[in-house]
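User: I'm curious what two different proteins look like when written out as structure tokens. Can you demonstrate?

Assistant: Sure. I'll show them one after the other, since each token string lines up with its own sequence. Here's the first protein:
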Amino acid sequence: MATDSIDEQLLSGQTWSTFCDALKRSGEQILRPEAPADAQTRAEGFRYLSRLMRIALEMHVEFADPDFPGFFSPSHETAKIGADNPDNLYQYARLNGNNEYRVSGQRGSVAYLSFGTQKGGYETDGTMTPTGFIDAEQLELNSDGSFEITLSQHPSAGNWLRLEPASNALIVRQTFLDRKAEKPAQLRIERIGSSNQPDALDPHRLHQGLQRAASFVENTARLFADWAMDYQRHPNQLPPANQALCQSVGGDPNIFYYHSYWSLADDEALLIEVESVPECDFWNLQINNYWMESLDYRYHRICLNKHSARYNDQGGVTLVLSARDPGLPNWLETAGHRQGTLCLRWVGASHHVHPTTRVVKLDSLKEAL
């Protein structure tokens, strides 16, 4: 777009009008015919769009300068995307693949820690394709737990994370077995060779950032609405997901994913059984709403993991999803929902054990086990 055209749009207010029109259009994803047509699902859908807008503005406006990067969280307790992991602390920074960067910090004691560079974006082609990856097992640490990682196109001594010319983001996953007992890694990112201060706001960058933010909201809403629609083909089952697809939208290469759809009456329970849990760095199973947002884990037990689940004598687990507490140890709450999506992850597993599922009446649950 020509420079004078951008100036004209800014001065006339068209920049803002176009941004607002795109946000309005995003609402069509919440009104899709296959989505549940109850007031709760609609309300959560429109709240979801507002949350996506908050994430998008941080990603493409507030933290968008790749010369002065900073970490922010693209998914957390009140803003969520694509089956966000309740056991994760997500951190994200915008990059320019032609720059070099340094990530420094303290390892902490969190169970799993990974760093991945990406290219693409939901705002453009609907992907977040990996361009480099390193996890804590590969990190060289100093005796005090401190470390540095160099991000560059060409290999560097010590800890190195690959960039491509098209790389534009860094995603960090810190995964907790027990948030109360583990200390997160403390991280800082800086561009190598940058000046001390950024320039004043570039009007053209703001125009482009608002365009990208609006596209991010619309495309992200469409992407995961498509996924939720697809999962309705196998309700109350939990088959392996398309792993290549999961990786193409920013999944961790150490994770094997299962995604599906659940729908239960108030007097029903979904049993999710794993005969023998494999050796792995981490696993968890979480319950989401229809829009693939994790349910409110601040106040409800909607996720169990390697540490919190109770195992049977054979090393397996049976998880129970229901509206009412069945009096069993591995209960997961529906938290006032009648349907939604769910996700199981094996992280760094020696092999992948596929779960089995069945729906039973709550009154006959104990006899079914």
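Here's a second, unrelated protein for contrast:
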Amino acid sequence: MLVPSMNIVEITKSTPGFDTYLEEMTGLISIAFASNPLTLPALGVEYENNPELHNDFNRAQLYAALTGAGRVLGAFVNTDGHERLAGVSIWYEPGNQFLDDNEQLNHWTSFTRKVDPKIRQWWDEVMLPCYNQLSREGLGDGAKKNLLHLQVIGTHPEFQQQGIGKAMVKHMLAQSDSRGIASCVETSKESNLLFYTGLGYEVKANRTIPSPYGDLTMWCLYRDPSCDKCEGA
């Protein structure tokens, strides 16, 4: 069931109060992903031991999209007469990808300079090559740039299991379906597979990625715009 009075809006650098929204979104994603299997390998430290580094990571992802390459959505709910940020999602539409231009890379480099050199090496030599290979295996060489790509989605713990994430995904899928555009997403959390398959995505590939903190698995999923089996659609 959807939370009453939910409002999904796109956040850009020209949005009034942008700086405040940016920090709210950054903190929300950090909290939402604190226990994600990818987070510790990605940063080398637990959230509670260095929340600022986690915020640097997620701020870089937001900044990269906010260059104009991607789109950032915020889901707001009315609680006791006040609008609260409940969820955030980052998307890349056809023609753009995460880190595929110099402006995005500059934001990414600003983040990676802050992590331990061994973590930076892992990103460069293991994570990003494996991530790109997963996309090629699941979608085909070069196909990802022609799709709507869900890069990040997170819901504040206080609002989880209330339909926030599903509403954000459906908001974008309604637009892409009307244009006949397929979509894709990757996840490193097996429990998320049911969420995505319920929205019409299909698992196309998976890959084990080694890390100093133990191996993790990532899945690549694809959704056809003519999907007719979306839960609640």
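A detail about the second structure: DSSP finds seven helices and seven strands in the chain.
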